[in-house]
Amino acid sequence: MPExxxxxxxxxxFQRRAAxxxxxxxxxxxEILRNSSPQALGRAMRNSTFEAPERWGKxxxxxxxxxxxxxxxxxxxxxxxxxxxxxxxxxxxxxxHFSDGDLRYRNMRKLGGVWLARxxxxxxVLGPLGPDALELRENAFIGRLKDRKGSIKSAxxxxxVLAGLGNLTVDESLWHARVSPRASIKSLARTDxxxxxxxxxxxxxxxxxxxxxxxKRTWLTGARSQRDPRCPRCRAxxxxxxxxxxxxxxxxxxx
DNA sequence: GCTCATGTTCCCCT
DNA sequence: CAGGGGAACATGAG
Length: 255
What we know:
about 260 residues; four-stranded antiparallel beta sheet; DNA-binding; alpha+beta; single chain; 8 helices
């Protein structure tokens, strides 16, 4: 699930359900805590009040006074609110208890995790992360790609270049912009990069609104999981291959 | 049984 | 040093 649009949905869930509220307690699997223990997390969070959460790329950043909780969702993570449901799902790796219900970090594959940091030192957890893909302006986008070698797909996938894109949003943006994922950056004209920026922005905004990359019939994402995937624009049979280490779909005719 | 999965990191090559 | 390829991580789905 989680690329920028999904995490944006989780941010809204956290804002609505946890911001401004006092945490009664947290229960969690030790495995999912990457730099603390359940005891340390409980101690740090109990009776503290969450402020407004922020999203940076695929990270959800949840400050509560001097401490900040950071969540990354890997490939299968999600954040869900279940008001009166009390039974714990086997994939609930962390549950934050509030007076009116529980917020659950659910993650089947356990890639990703939950970190705890001092609010003034969260960058030690985030590491080198480029600017958020939705906040980046066009000239900054162009500037960050300019000195990059290799394929456009691998650059867009690199969280140090810009943060938030993933396999689906990259393929989707490239398809809308009619740019081949294999194209080297230096082969692209300024107008190509500019068009790519605008399409990426639209893909991210439309998706973030829904909290996921929608599998619309008019989008590549709607075609990629079908048995005979065809380009929604020209009906050509889609190419499928590995680029930047990930399964990639693209249209050989219009990209 | 086998392949693949919306992510990240680490190691080895070129 | 920068990129590319592949494996590992953990676990379910088709």
